[in-house]
Amino acid sequence: MRKSYDTFKNVFDSLSMRSSFFGKLRVLTLRKRWHMLVGEAISRRSRIHDYRNGVLYVAVTEGLWAYEISLHKKALKERLNEELGAQIIKSIRVIIEPTHNTEESDEKQV
User: Fold this and answer.
1) For 46, phi and psi rounded to 5 degrees?
2) Which domains does the chain have, with CATH numbers?
3) What digits encode the pLDDT tens for the residues 11-40?
4) Beta bridge partners of 58
5) Is the dihedral of CA 12, 14, 19, 24 positive or negative?
């Protein structure tokens, strides 16, 4: 049984590196662990918005949080790629969505 799991994992890893669809699927799984990856303060004011062509788009509630994330982009990218087990995220871009409610967004994602 273990061998089948390893095979599926290897196939999924390979697909996520070559296919934008599987890469996006893999990155978007980070939404459920966002609060653990970025910390409580940032996670309450931000969320993973999208992933396209190696770019992770993070939505924040205001410019202050965009600045905070920009200060830690390199470390955040490294942490997220480590969590993913591959260098899938090439860069992070922050967008401001003052009307989004991260708690409401989290409930929709579950």
Assistant:
1) -150, 165
2) 2-109 (3.30.300.180)
3) 555 555 555 666 777 888 899 999 999 999
4) 48, 94
5) positive
Radius of gyration of the chain (CA): 15
- Strands 46-52 and 55-60 come out as antiparallel
Q: Which long-range contacts (CB under 8 A, 24 or more apart) does 37-42 make?
A: 37/76, 37/79, 37/80, 37/83, 38/69, 38/76, 42/68, 42/69
Which residue did the predictor score with more confidence, 9 or 50? Answer: 50
Average pLDDT over residues 77-81: 95
CB atoms within 10 A of CB 63: 11
Query: pLDDT tens digits for 53-76?
Result: 899 999 999 999 999 999 999 999
